[in-house]
Write the structure tokens for this entry.
Amino acid sequence: MNLECEGGMQAKSVTAQQLRQAFADDTARGEFIILSAQDQVYIQAAGEDEGPYELEYREGGDQTHFRCTDELTKQQVEAAFVKYLEGDASWRQDHRWEPLYPDAWPKTSDEDKGPEAKGAHKHKRRWWRRIFIALAILAVIYLMPFPFLSDSTRMDVQEATVRWLLTHNHAGTRLPQVCFVGLGQSFDFEVADMSMKDPSEAFMKRLADLPVPALPLSQAQEAPSPPGHLGGMIADEHGRVGLILGVGDVERRSLGVAVCQGRYHEAALSAAGYKVYLIRVPFGWIAVTSSMMWVS
């Protein structure tokens, strides 16, 4: 490294001893001293006698030119110079620094960025806007009260409830040979009338793709009971044992949430009532869970 002083002292390939001599001789050193590793890479200080001194370093350009914010003595500056000469990088941690040319640093505001960066930021803002709009729509669909219910929506919800009850009940037969579908109002024991009636032909056509035949409630009859059985099992005219699946009226909680009462009946001591909770999705209504109201 090369040494250059305002007082005229200079040295190429300076040694630590020569560097200390420069700091010891205030007259030969003068008001500033520079220790250069190469062009535009150096450490420099300015001051007189014992101080205070200003200390700076540069590593290639204005963006890497820093000044020390501490008020330094000559001994502290000398220690930094010796460490710089010997390759001991701890001189950076010994003091606090700030850019000498802040305007030379890369701009971070949108106005100072190039077209490509601006476009990327706008794209990110668009995505956040879309996410916010999507969340707002979901809140309206699933959280905002909406009690209005059309006949087609009621049938959609009741159909989804039948499909749920067929595979999510507590009957001893996991999947019956046939199911009988009935429509009622309520299956709560506190309500006196829990009677059911046959669904419309249009409703029964909706259930044509069930994994077992779906028949109107009126076609259900009592099956012969096996020895030791309490009786009351349900079958069709061909003797196929099945379940009665009943769906009640629909309570619409919001645009996308509804509750429908349902029940199954397998035999005299095998029946239960449920509240089935459904949500609306792009392809229709689906049941997601249920709570049991009673069981026998």
